[in-house]
Write a structure and sequence with these properties.
60s Ribosomal Protein L30, Chain: A, homodimer, 4-stranded mixed beta sheet
């Protein structure tokens, strides 16, 4: 590593009270809580694949951690530590300062210590690895869904995808609407508190990063079950709702990624408890369908007719 | 992620007996041993910066894990788990199969479970995050060197750097010698067993990845001490020894990276114990100098004359 690149680490060398030893040695040293299990996830964001290369670096800093926190949320794990591997084409101090600002803002909000990393020269990309803790046998996994479970989704669907469709010129939005939806795309809120609250209630969970149908499909595949989703129950924000007749609508709501909401299943008996969680956390929770033993994922309308979802890009063979 | 890229994960989905839950959920779930501390390190290797883009993928798989294991070794931590973030310009099944073979060969040899990862499209780069365990207060840190400590190095220095100099056309080697040295460059052996054996004996340690002077300099900076290194004590392999008169020699031995040996300091009283470890593990251990209170890192010859090391690329201001 050139010394120029070594200096970059200064942007990421804040004190790490959550670690025994933070940045500056061969490894960080961490003290896990006794008896807890560790939840670990790694995500890479590549310029011009996952974000625009000229993206606002502060927002990018937030998002790079937020998407990893979303994975922890989907496991019901409490965030503890993260490492950052940052590859940059050149050293731009202003960019780095803004990126670090966004990253630490997200870290502070969710109680994460950035304990280590690496900085290298190359095409712009970021790899975050996140570590959280969860008591044994309480993690929310993909493989626990059972026939009869209700399927729930937090928040609203399609906001980030509609923003992306507008940015790509496929949808026209007013400036005000674009700004509102772009916040979902650029600075998503990981559902960390919700994930913790769902321990002991949800039988399975996943975060919606690849689209509702694809991600619910992962639960079905791992659990060996099928599902019926009620098209008219899908939770929509006001702006997305107004685009219900647009050709992009179904793709945004059912196959759009980047919302980072949680999709989970729970026994019907937990409906009241889930309502109390929604009220306490101020998070909308919507039952959108049910798990059944018969394999396959179908979406049906208010009349019970099965809808053809191939136009959304969803490949039912992957479920 | 396209399904084409999703399929890549099949190459990295072996059973993970070392994990509660391995690849296939939002996070991996791990059960740390009670009371142990976690050592965590992240390293990125970028094509055409850290390796040739057309490098043998099996060797690259080995090296990408080995360099992370070297960081654990330098902490005296026992390897447990790793995650892999792999960015690829295209899906090449043969390349992936060979890369996975090398990675798992290294993982199996050192008892590491690959528990998760991410695969994305982009310029070729790899980020490994490794997790190991070490009992509280037994980690080998950079900040523990004390005046009077002897400075030790494992193995031999300069082998990998001389191979690289030959591959870049700056040094002529016989084919046999190049093959021998290239093994040090492409498939380094992390000193994991040595790191574990040094718990309770070494006061500080680091792995030699950026060159002896730079890495020893990190120990000095973190410990607030200085050092004298005896030029004639530096441990050399036969091939490197024969190049002692070559203009590249000092740069290879003193500033060459990629040897992944351990440099550590220990009280003189531990000399006998270190000799027994060297014999038991079959690892050469050489005392190359001593720590002193006076700041700065100097190299002196057999006559006690201080040598000018600026031609090695070593910047003494960084110590």
């Amino acid at each position: 590593m050139t010394s120029e690149f070594g200096l970059i680490q200064r942007h990421f060398s804040r004190a790490t009270p959550g670690a025994v030893l933070g940045v500056g040695d061969d490894c960080a040293l961490l003290q896990p809580a006794t008896g807890m299990q560790l939840a670990v996830s790694t995500d890479t964001l590549v310029a011009d694949v996952h974000f625009f290369a000229d993206a606002d670096p502060e927002k990018l800093g937030w998002k790079s951690l937020a998407v990893n926190l979303s994975d922890l949320a989907a496991m019901g794990a409490a965030p503890r530590w993260a490492t950052l591997a940052l590859t940059l084409p050149e050293v731009d101090d202003d960019w780095l300062a803004a990126f670090a600002t966004g990253l630490y803002r997200c870290a502070d909000q969710f109680g994460v210590s950035l304990v280590g990393g690496d900085t290298t020269r190359g095409a712009l990309s970021l790899t975050l690895t996140i570590l959280g803790e969860v008591p044994p046998n309480q993690a929310l996994r993909r493989d626990g869904a059972q026939a009869g479970d209700e399927i729930w989704v937090s928040g609203t669907l399609g906001d980030a995808a509609l923003a992306l469709a507008a940015l790509h010129g496929r949808v026209n939005l007013t400036d005000a609407d674009l700004i509102t939806l772009a916040a979902r795309l650029y600075t998503p809120t990981p559902r960390v508190e919700l994930g913790l609250a769902l321990r002991g209630l949800a039988r399975s969970a996943i975060d919606v990063s690849d689209g509702l149908l694809a991600d619910l499909g992962h639960i079905l595949a791992r659990s060996g079950v099928g599902a019926i989703v009620e098209y008219t129950h899908l939770p929509l924000g006001e702006i997305v709702h107004d685009y219900a007749a647009h050709p992009e609508f179904d793709a945004c709501v059912l196959s759009g990624g980047d919302d980072y909401e949680l999709c989970f299943t729970a026994p019907v008996a937990h409906r009241k408890a889930l309502g109390e969680i929604a009220a306490r956390l101020g998070v909308r929770l919507t039952a959108i369908g049910s798990i059944r033993a018969e394999p396959g994922l179908i979406v049906r309308d208010a009349q019970g007719q099965v809808l053809d979802m191939r136009h959304t890009g969803y490949d039912h063979f992957s479920a």
